[in-house]
Design brief:
This protein has 258 residues and is an alpha/beta fold. The chain has two domains: 3-30 and 79-123 and 169-252, 3-Layer(aba) Sandwich (Rossmann fold); 40-76 and 131-162, no CATH class. The protein has helices at residues 3-13, 24-27, 47-50, 53-58, 60-76, 81-95, 110-114, 171-183, 202-208, 235-252; strands at residues 16-21, 99-104, 119-121, 124-131, 137-138, 158-162, 186-190, 212-217, 229-232. It binds nicotinamide-adenine-dinucleotide. Nicotinamide-adenine-dinucleotide is lined by residues 22-24, 26-28, 31, 33-35, 105-108, 123, 191-193, 195-196, 217-219, 221, 234-236.
Amino acid sequence: MPDHETLARWLLEARSVAVLTGAGVSAESGLATFRDPEEGLWAKYDPMELATIGAFEREPELVTRWYHWRFTRARDVQPNPGHHALAQLESFLTARERGCSIITQNIDGLHQRAGSQRVIEIHGTIHRWRCTKTGREKPLSDLSFDRFPIPSDHGGLMRPCIVWFGEMLPEQALRDTFAALERCDLFLSVGTSATVQPAASFIEIARAAGARTVEINKDATLNTGGVDLALRGPSGVILPRVMEQLDELASAMPSGDT
Ligand SMILES: NC(=O)c1ccc[n+]([C@@H]2O[C@H](COP(=O)([O-])OP(=O)(O)OC[C@H]3O[C@@H](n4cnc5c(N)ncnc54)[C@H](O)[C@@H]3O)[C@@H](O)[C@H]2O)c1
């Protein structure tokens, strides 16, 4: 049986699905992953070195410009067929009273724009910014990106509401994540190199809870050897194919059986 059909069958059987996504799921929207060479202006910087509170404190202008650039990129691109397929999967499962959570490491907001409702943003979002002094957020519409770094109204600076390396993950997001991992009987890892902790260990938690594990990635990763099923290729191609197969299987079943 082709791999995408196996996955469609597993999705049909699943009571609860947890999907971990990474930068690869947004690559076909035109957003570079961390391991791709970055474009033009930013090609000489290592994103990992800009993504720390230390970098922000040392070079607030550079780091704010970098995140403003990433914000405009995320705002100006569109969700791709991979994001849409995951939103469709959630609707499919919800209609059958089954669970579906997307746990994303992405900060771009593209899952929500594709229509996904239950998205846990473990690394925060580039679409909200807060004051370094008070922690108070300011609506995007009130933020002016015409001078860098961006002063806040309270004597601090505005920074994106994302989790930098070395910072704590948002507590509620972590609680929701662990609940989804404990609950799931099918875990999908999509477009992530699975190198950044704690996301890298989510697959182990799901496996220990008894879930089948699946990886969808353009390339092999550290997880590939250990998963129950690995589908190699772009998520924007594989996920729609799986959803098509799932719809076919579901419509071939007597009503009430799905
Ligand atoms: N769009 C975003 O929000 C964005 C962009 C860059 C980096 N990040 C951050 O990068 C950190 C690094 O972890 P990561 O694992 O998310 O990214 P990563 O760059 O480490 O890995 C990306 C993975 O996606 C795979 N990939 C690339 N194109 C793909 C495609 N079309 N289909 C399927 N797989 C594809 C690659 O083989 C790789 O394994 C995360 O913390 C994340 O917050 C986010």
